[in-house]
Amino acid sequence: MERTKSILGIVGNETRRRILAFLSEGPHYVLEISKKLDITQPAVLKQLTLLERAGLVESFMKASKYGASRKYFKICDSVNIEVVINPRDFRITKHPSTISCPVYLENEKAMEELTTQINEAKNLNEKAVKAQEMMRRTATLLSCEKYIAEDWNCRNCHMISSLRKRISETIIHMSKGEMTSVIQVLTSLMDLV
């Protein structure tokens, strides 16, 4: 819990949040960060030092085509912190960065392959066939008998599966020329996000 409090204190600073947001796009060196965020280089270095000490970013050296190697900074592995504030509850929970549910993991590789096949399919009918298979996979996850609404793994598995199901529905409706249904599914997708 102490590390979580420390992380919340670190990301409570707007400048550090801006730096983290920029680093979420990929690794950058100090001058890039300074120019992009319109912050002096010493100020950027000070904030990066704090972020690095907290274990949120790490640095590495990379050769530059313009001369000497440069020190780049990137975000470390994910830290997922959930803050719940409402009239009946206040809690801070640190979650793992990946879903560890065995049912999800068993299906995830197949769904990633299906997603690739859908993206690479040459025509809409071919995409629809793969989308049908994706619907079967998501149905397995959405009807999991081990589902617990309060469990972080279950909630995220359910959300990802729901999104994949809605996207698959959209592809299937498009292949049939059912544009009204496509609009309805896309509208419901906006509610999920």
Q: Would you mind describing this structure in some detail?
A:
With 193 residues, this protein is of the alpha+beta class. It is built from eight helices and five strands. It has helices spanning 2-11, 14-23, 30-37, 41-53, 102-120, 124-142, 152-175, 179-192, and strands at 28-29, 57-64, 67-75, 80-86, 89-95. The model has no long low-confidence stretch (mean pLDDT 84).
Helix/strand-derived category reads: alpha+beta
The percent range for strand residues is 15-25%
The spatial strand order of the largest sheet comes to 1-3-2
Give the strand tally.
Answer: 5
Question: How many individual helices?
Answer: 8
Distance between the termini: 29 Å
* Helix and strand element order: HHEHHEEEEHHHH
pLDDT < 50 stretches: none
Categorize the overall geometry.
globular
Q: Approximately how much helix is present in the residues? A: 55-70%
Alpha carbon gyration radius:
22 Å
> Total domains, how many?
2
Largest sheet: 3 strands, antiparallel
* Average predicted local confidence, pLDDT: 84
